[in-house]
Write a structure and sequence with these properties.
With 394 residues, the chain is α/β, with parallel strands linked by helices. The protein folds into 3 domains: 22-127, Arc Repressor Mutant, subunit A (Orthogonal Bundle); 132-203, no CATH class; 210-392, 3-Layer(aba) Sandwich (Rossmann fold), CATH 3.40.50. Helices cover 50% and strands 14% of the residues. It is built from 18 helices and 12 strands. The strands form 3 sheets. Strands 6-5-4-7-8-12-11 form a 7-stranded mixed β-sheet, sandwiched between helices. A 3-stranded antiparallel β-sheet has the order 1-3-2. A two-stranded parallel sheet has the order 9-10. InterPro entries: COMT-like, COMT_C, SAM-dependent_MTases_sf, WH-like_DNA-bd_sf, WH_DNA-bd_sf. The active site is at residue 300. GO terms for molecular function: O-methyltransferase activity. One of its GO terms (biological process) is methylation.
Length: 394
């Protein structure tokens, strides 16, 4: 195949990408990334490595000065913006705007239609203040600050994975003894960004519900209505439980959503059949003998020391027939792709914790008298989601 044919094929794929399925888009991205890797010179690779993070920082600065809010408003009106308008509306020096917008033009957020006149492109709306994507950028650019200091942390502490949730890379960089969650509570802007980012996962249309993966029906008839059917441990404001109740309106027994007081106190109401309860999962579990204990994306926030305490408190409350379900990221034992591998490092830098493999989960559970029964994997191979079924060891 000639190079001109290859180039035209890529252009055709770009023009028709809107009709592709999620799986097809992922395959196209993978193929294009492979092509870029094969074609890049060493100098280009070095440039990408060194200056790639600058793009995220420029986006963050644009969010901070409300540049994307101004641009989104103009986009909706079909208008362009001149430099003076941008400076006046963002309260930002015109020279600084010009320096930032050069990068944003290269990133296809703006088109320069005349000298110092810029047309906003659809991408700008992703980073307006009301967009959850903008909050995710605030969250992860803050995280990047800590990750950039990992070389200094390991040089000072020795090259060993951190294991203390209260004395790890995050504390080293910020100079605090607070846990990340305590620090967030004292920094409202970052707390909000974190909350929005975490809730974004549950709002993604492609994200399956845990009960789409795990065969819940087997437990429905076995639970008397007078008993607790499910305890949502560390369940926040109840996203998982509310979705479950909407799917199974006639669930036997009640659902209990547990979290710490500031979270529970912020809940104004719950659907019938769901109870909100104040509980710290580092304390003994008050709901005993429930049919199901559900833990969603919590254990990966904690190194083994604290994870064992969480699990022990649940185990001590479980009846012999109780089931513990873990909706947690599960790393493959080998051939880990980029994003899961990086998220493992994010968890290390922020929480001194880790994303675990099935083997690591088995060891962790076994250490507290629990047994990994089965890993239920999503039928959607693109999601990588799985539910870990756990019971008390007999």
């Amino acid at each position: 195949m000639s190079f001109s044919t290859i180039i035209q094929t890529i252009r055709d794929a770009t023009a028709n990408s809107g009709t592709a399925t999620s799986a097809e888009k992922a395959q196209l991205v993978e193929a294009c990334n492979g092509l870029v890797t094969a074609l890049e010179t060493p100098e280009q690779k070095l440039t990408s490595l060194c200056f790639g993070p600058v793009r995220a920082l420029i986006i963050r600065l644009g969010i901070d000065i409300h540049l994307f809010d101004v641009a989104t408003a103009a986009l909706k009106k079909g208008e362009s913006l001149n430099m003076q308008q941008l400076s006046d509306e963002t309260k930002c020096e015109a020279l600084l705007i010009r320096r930032l917008i050069r990068v944003l033009i290269d990133m296809n957020h703006f088109r320069e239609v005349d000298q110092d006149v810029f047309q906003p492109l659809p991408e700008v709306a992703l980073f307006s203040t009301t967009s959850p994507i903008s909050q995710a950028m605030i969250q992860f650019t803050n995280t990047l600050q800590h990750m950039f200091q990992l070389p200094a942390y390991f040089e000072a502490r020795g090259y060993q994975s951190p294991t203390d949730a209260f004395d790890g890379p995050f504390q080293f960089v910020t100079g605090t003894k607070l846990h990340v969650f305590e620090w967030l509570a004292s920094n409202p802007r970052y707390q909000h960004a974190n909350d929005v980012t975490m809730s974004l996962r549950t709002k993604l249309a492609s994200q399956e519900k845990w009960f789409d993966i795990y065969p819940l029906e087997q437990h429905l008839a076995a639970t008397p209505p007078s008993e607790t059917f499910l305890v949502d441990v560390g369940g926040g404001v109840g996203h998982h439980s509310i979705a479950l109740k909407e799917r199974y309106t006639q669930l036997p027994g009640k659902i209990v959503v547990q979290d710490i007081a500031p979270v529970i106190d912020g809940i104004s109401s719950m659907p019938e059949g769901i109870e909100a309860m104040t509980h710290d999962f580092f304390e003994p579990q008050p709901c005993r003998n429930a049919k199901i204990y559900f833990v969603g994306h919590i254990l990966h926030d904690w190194p083994d020391k604290q994870a064992k305490t969480i699990l022990e408190n649940i185990r001590n409350a479980m009846a012999p027939e109780s089931v513990l379900l873990l909706d947690e990221p599960l790393l493959p034992e080998r051939d880990v792709t980029f994003l899961p591998a990086v998220m493992d490092l994010v968890m290390m830098s922020q929480f001194s914790s880790l994303e675990r493999t099935e083997h690591q989960f088995r060891e962790l559970l076994d250490s507290v008298g629990l047994e990994l029964v089965k890993v239920w994997e999503s039928s959607n191979t693109m999601s990588g989601q799985s539910i870990i079924e756990v019971r008390r060891r007999r």
